[in-house]
Amino acid sequence: MTEATVTAAVATLVAAPEKVRPADAAALDDRPGIGTWIAAMTPEEQADSDVVTQLLFGERVLVEEVRPDGWARVVATGQPAPGLDPRGYPGWIRAAHLAGQPAAGDGAPLVVDALSTALARSPGGPAAVSGVVLGTLLTPAGAAVDGWLPVHAAGHADPLWARTDHLAPVPAQPPTGDEALAVARRLLGAVYVWGGLSDLGIDCSGLVHLVWRRLGVELPRDAHDQSTATAVVPRGEERPGDLYFFARPGRRVHHVGIVAEPGRMVHASSVAHRVVEEAMPPERAETLVGAHRV
User: Fold this and answer.
1) Together in a domain, 63 and 144
2) Which domain holds residue 62?
3) Which family is this protein grouped under (predicted)?
4) Which residues are catalytic?
């Protein structure tokens, strides 16, 4: 088994290559076009696919198998999935979206705080990697120059350059609920996409995972695992930044939202087909199973 690093700004992980649809071609191209992929799908295709999650630039994976047809079976160690694999989220990714690990960094990692940015070949120069998204971790490779910071980048022999005003330190302290809610609100309007993990398209548990990733906290990727990794809050005592979980009778948790105030939440809604902030709809209230705190 080897380790590798994601070189695409946003790479797509699927459950089985054999189930990939023609509609997924743009996401799986050697230079994936996530926006093109999402725009070309119908709402039904966006909400129902074999995509399990997405990986962001620089994420580490364990590579278990590489097939001659260019598919690699991996485990994404930064996206916990205890119900699937104790090491991380398992699935298949295009081998073209992976490379060996970059050099060790020259300082503490930074996190992308812009919804989208580019990594340039030189300060202010042409983009080498476009569409690097909120929550991506980058490791400095030297001192800043004219508002640009060199960062290590897998798949590139030389450091790439990121705008310093698009970066932030990874928080050293646990975030407050208000901080989490503020990040979630920045994603309002993002399209609902099953398995999505960026402002281009995201699902309910992806929203929760990405918000806390931006704030330096590693939460599981799926809603049912998020519910077991967080602490139950008595109903009526929930506060902004807590989580509402939803499940049908006798079934495991299938949906999650971020509390804006009691009875109101920010969530990636498959009904509205967007990330929305709204009072809890009656059909959601019927399946509410509790509030939790990270």
Assistant:
1) no
2) 2-99
3) Belongs to the peptidase C40 family.
4) 204, 255, 267
